[in-house]
Amino acid sequence: MKLFGWVTSAIMMVAPIGLAAQAAPAATNGDRPAIVLVHGAFAESGSWNGVIERLRADGYTVVAAPNPLRSVRSDAASVAGLVKSLAKPVILVGHSYGGAVITDAASQAPNVKALVYVAAFAPDVGENSAGLSGKFPGSTLGPTLAPPVLLADGNKDLYIQTDKFPQQFAADVPAREAALMAATQRPITEAALNEATVAPAWKSLPSWFIYGSADRNIPATVHAFMAQRAGSKKTVVTPGASHVVMISHPKEVADMIESAATSQ
After folding, report:
1. Which H or E run contains 57?
2. How is residue 167 annotated by DSSP?
3. Euclidean distance between CA atoms 91 and 249, whole angstroms
4. Residue 70 placed within a domain
5. Structure pTM?
6. What is the Cα–Cα distance from 102 to 121, expressed in whole angstroms?
7. What's the domain range around 238?
8. What is the CATH number of the domain that holds 101?
9. Contacts of 147 (CB under 8 A, 6+ apart)
10. Dihedral angle at the C-alpha atoms of 72, 73, 77, 80, nearest 10 degrees?
11. What is the DSSP string of 194-255?
């Protein structure tokens, strides 16, 4: 079985002649791109709730896509179909393995205008999440995985042990909430984590990156490498944040997404 370690900153208005300049009107909901959020492994769509509340309050249309977590190709096709159905510009956002999904999905959906990686993988051609996670040392995920669940097709579903989940995945989230997250975690297939990326959209689309300095799944060094390689427009490292920075720091993540949205 090929286990893995999940493995950061760089972080007009022109008035007509003779007329006083007036403040530009605020963009309406119809003028703004839609935001599509894609969760990653061991998470689910509700992990975006804090971010969604802030984006909606600022007038954005937001959809948290259900990520099947079965394979990069099929997951990307599912997300791309949803994105194209919106029939308007979209900012595509991915967390963790969801980053690999949006990397391929955006190449299939011409209305994607920007990518935002939230503690997420941004693979190049031929790379996969498992391989990237081990590019630099620091991940402690491997030993926290539960025994794999064998599927009828021969694939294997992976979970994090529920007692180890809070510290490994969500160390800066209140204990009660982290325990609920452990119980509701969705498994990912081992095959999905080892499936190579075919068409990395970050090579042709602008991208933004935000991640936590205390990410135990994907170490900060790996995040920094991917952000620099992708020519990140803006990179934010959140001090002390865990792998689920969108839960523990929803304002910072929402601000990053809006930065991408307003740059278009």
Report:
1. helix 49-57
2. H
3. 19
4. yes
5. 0.89
6. 9
7. 32-134+192-262
8. 3.40.50.1820
9. none
10. 60
11. TPPBS--GGGTS-EEEEEETT-SSS-HHHHHHHHHHTT-SEEEEETT--S-HHHH-HHHHHH
